[in-house]
Amino acid sequence: MTPLEALQDLEKLHQQLMAAPPELACLAWFGICEMDRQRAAARNPTLAAMRGAVSDQLMRDIVNDQWRGVSAPASMATTPGARPEPPRGGTGWIDPAPLGPPPGVAIMDRMMDAQDARDRAELIVNAAMARRVADAARPTETKPTGTPVQPAKQSKASST
Fold first, then answer.
1. Considering only CA atoms, which of 44, 19, 14 is closest in space to residue 29?
2. Which terminal residue of the chain has fewer beta carbons within 10 Å of its beta carbon, N or C?
3. Angstrom distance (rounded) from CA 125 to CA 127
4. With contact defined as beta carbons under 8 Å apart, do 143 and 151 qualify?
């Protein structure tokens, strides 16, 4: 009987394995599992690669860990023997944060006010300098003593 014929007649294979000595039965089961693995690899090579990456024992340990559930945290930060806070009942709703300007807007406003004050001071200084330059560029009259005299401003009445 070939292995493929034996797999096709599972009832007969089962009877022969039960009657075989334990060493031979173990070897036969290993062969059957290997043929099954190879057949699965031929159908889905990606799954076969994943199965080959992790051993069956490791996967069994991972599954058993999941069945036990999440273990309690072991941290030095918690007080030993302290009971955890019980969960609160409710819907999970919390009050929303109050509306207001985002953080940092007040300091940005102060920075902009300070810059505006600097800009205004610079404009005043520039205007004063421009007036001085304009006054210095105007022609001046001299007195007989040699001291410069500013020209008199003309009134509107005399110019008409």
1. 14
2. C
3. 5
4. no
Q: 68: which strand partners? A: none
Who wins on pLDDT, 138 or 116? 116
User: What is the CA 58 to chain-centroid distance, rounded?
Assistant: 32
Locate the domains of the chain by residue range.
3-53
**Residue 142, SS3 per DSSP:** strand
Convert 97-127 to b/e letters by CB count within 10 Å (16 or more is b).
eeeeeeeeeeeeeeeeeeeeeeeeeeeeeee
Which of 32, 28, 8, 10 lies closest to 20 in space, CA to CA?
28
* Contact yes or no for 33/5 (Cβ under 8 A): no
d(CA 86, CA 73): 16
> How far from 13 is each of 4, 5, 21, 33, CA to CA, in Å?
11, 9, 14, 14
Instruction: Give the integer Cα–Cα distance in Å for 135 and 54.
Output: 93
Rounded Cα–Cα distance for residues 22 and 13 (Å): 15
